[in-house]
Write a structure and sequence with these properties.
Chain A is an alpha/beta fold. In chain A, 50% of the residues lie in helices and 12% in strands. Chain A contains 15 helices and ten strands. In chain A, 60% of the residues are buried. Chains A, B: InterPro entries: G6P_Isomerase (IPR001672), Phosphoglucose_isomerase_CS (IPR018189), SIS_dom_sf (IPR046348), SIS_PGI_1 (IPR035476), SIS_PGI_2 (IPR035482).
């Protein structure tokens, strides 16, 4: 269960403000459920779990095959085809290990265009057995397409054309596009990116599930958590629907000028959950010159970095803090004879308790500094609760976007740099634009 | 050489605005050089290189000793005792390797209080030879002090008390404090954190240099780059002094309402340079309810995440882009018979060129979206240029803080959460405060 604690926001708003937005939030939630709002072509994720559970067996079997035949899976994708899988995988990864025991290490490509990164990646694959999962709706997005050219060539050199074809899995459109055509020609196994699920909402489609399964994470539990939250958030009362409550709170704060939201983690392996969240909210709400700017920190690390600013810098920030109730493995501080460092007062305390006290201490300090704090409580990090958390954020994002008055399911701004890049690189059809841009650069 | 290209800011300001701030910037630079301004007890870094070069030989020898005797160095520190070393080390690290060839892997502790992280770290050390470098002025900062209790116990179990003492290096105060006393009692080798250099300006003191040397990076070159920029930025003409120019530009933008600065990298291994920069600027300027909010992205990765927001979300953002001129290792896109992915127009182009075109394309797109772009040009990533870059940012930060009207060398806000935490955890002397806070939490 995910619950929202908003006690530390109450100093910044009146409770009736929640009621004033309640009907709008309820209406927004209904628009999502009934697929009647802006961007309603992209609402496949709202009731995805049924579909996902159908695919789960096949993907589970593929995960097993990868774990048995590959030390490394190269996951090729960018944006939603990268962040969802990474967020889930790293949430269950020992930070000093490359993979879970008996599972395949997942590494990422096609999410940057740095030559050195790619050279090092190819070197790393030498002598290791690997699979490639290339994830792209069209197959023509520049970053993953470049990466896949190199990886396809390398895989064919290592395993022959037929051998490589058995080790390349394409997650792509059901019928059309470059990657679909290439897959048919080369007999790659393909999995479908549904037409009605956008990249940033796609973690529980094959896009995210294949790398997650290869990494040895229980995808059925993940889907069940997602499903559980899908059911819960059909409720039209914000007191019972955490997605509605979160959407209402952040819109109230935004309307008061709190225009930057900082997602706060105290568990280092949840770092990429925040990265995934930044795409989800940034792409969904950051348009038409509107939207809350999404930012993130890892505490207590960054209390010694951005902490000073959050405490006392320019105001307009609010924080959303993920509080994890329990941790399995844990260590206790022990008494020492000489108490030079003055830590003996912590004798017998678990690090997790100390970490939670730091969380509570920080919430109060930041509230005193003028920073509203929303706390998201989750009991423990498990595949089920991470599934819940993902759906919670997705549903809240849709509601929040409708309250803000944007289409939370498009991303027209992402095309701007692409068009310029094609022009700069001399792509056919962009010649005139290229001239104009080069003239601007030489000015 | 580092140069600032501000062509893509000119649409947002008039050139005379630079001249209007010139005298103030010049005066601020002189305050730093003459140590007459606010926080002038902490200006040891301004002419640090002479001091740093004196220590370099001893630290180099220690680095060699560590490389010969340890697979792993655990660097224990938080804030400036963590980020500077990590920023430099990762700038030279193959992302798929744990260490440079023949060098020691540096791992980090004492920068969080997550029990699982720590348990995994101790497991990781099993069977590996290691050194510990504990970095703390006082020796009582909670996070590193807790980490060091565990590591000291573990090292003594592994190597015996005397053996451990040879493998523990303390970077701490010259004369006083818990860690200094403990080091004397246990005969640890110690290196000095100068009194006049604050954490976030300490990367070229033993704080940063010891882990950097152990990681196999040429610290003399790093110091020479730092020194070269220290000399260059004595110039009082912003046309010749990039630190002054950067400080002027960002203050002009801030005064117009551009209150969030996004540091942009296109080279993934520079990620932690941005993290270091966020501490430097966030802690220096974020006070008295003032300051530019520092944020960062890795492009092109995050063009498919925060890119939409930057292009078209709520305005008030500006970007500072690090453009690296050359890259040693590189790969070229090759023609393929079937051009399904449509990439053949890139035939023969190096990834680094494509990446730079993406950079230029993005700068123009974001400028068109209303986001001023400052470009910082550096030729290549080498220890020398990274040394230059670090000093460039430090000097600019001092100047910028003075223009803003803050003391760029204190961080009073960081104490707030600490006091609350001591109270919550029941530390002696905080009993009354503890009661009040607990009452607030239970409310």
């Amino acid at each position: 269960m995910i619950t929202i604690n908003y006690k530390n926001v109450l100093g910044f708003l009146k409770e009736y403000e929640l009621d004033y937005l309640h009907d709008i939030a309820k209406y927004s939630n209904e628009l999502l459920e009934n697929k009647k709002g802006a961007g309603n072509d992209f609402l496949g994720w709202v009731n995805l779990p049924t579909e996902a559970l159908k695919n789960a067996k096949e993907i589970d079997a593929l995960g097993k095959e990868i774990r048995e035949n590959a030390e490394v899976l190269v996951s090729v994708g960018i944006g939603g085809s990268y962040l969802g899988a990474r967020a889930v995988i790293e949430s269950f990864l020992n930070p000093f290990a490359q993979a879970k025991k008996g599972a395949t290490q997942v590494i990422y490509a096609g999410h940057n265009m740095n030559g050195e990164y790619f050279k090092h990646l190819l070197d790393y694959l030498e002598g290791k057995d690997f699979y490639v999962n290339v994830i792209s709706k069209s197959g023509t997005t520049t970053e993953p397409a470049i990466a896949f050219r190199f990886l396809k060539e390398y895989a064919e050199k290592r395993y022959g054309k037929d051998g490589a074809a058995k080790r390349i899995i394409a997650t792509t459109d059901a019928k059309k596009g470059a990657l679909k055509t290439l897959s048919t020609e080369n007999k790659y196994r393909t999995f479908v990116i549904p037409d009605d699920v956008g990249g940033r909402y796609s973690v529980l489609t094959p896009v995210g599930l294949i790398p997650i399964a290869a990494a040895g994470i229980n995808i059925e539990e993940l889907i069940k958590g997602f499903d559980s939250m899908a059911k819960l958030t059909k409720d039209s009362d914000y007191k019972k629907n955490p997605s509605m409550l979160y959407a209402i709170l952040r819109n109230i704060l935004y309307n008061k000028g709190f225009a930057t939201e900082i997602m706060v983690n105290y568990i280092p392996r949840m770092h990429y959950i925040s990265e995934w969240w930044k795409q989800l909210y940034g792409e969904s709400e950051g348009k038409d010159k509107k939207g809350i700017y999404p930012s993130s920190v890892d505490f207590s690390t960054d209390l010694h970095s951005l902490g000073q600013f959050i405490q006392d810098g320019r105001r307009g920030l609010f924080e959303t803090v993920i509080r994890v109730g329990h941790e399995d493995i844990d260590l206790k501080v022990k008494k020492e004879d000489s108490d030079l460092d003055g830590l003996n007062y912590l004798d017998g305390k678990k690090l997790h308790e100390i970490n939670k006290s730091a969380l509570e201490a920080t919430v109060l300090a930041h509230v005193d500094g003028g920073v509203p704090n929303i706390i998201i409580d989750i009991d423990k990090i498990t595949p089920f609760t991470i599934g819940e958390l993902l759906y919670f954020f997705e549903k809240a994002c849709g509601i929040s976007g409708y309250i803000l008055g944007v289409n939370p399911f498009d991303q027209p701004g992402v095309e701007e740099y692409k068009k310029n890049m094609f022009a700069m690189l001399g792509k056919k059809g962009y010649e005139e634009m290229g001239k104009t841009l080069r003239a601007r650069l030489e000015k």
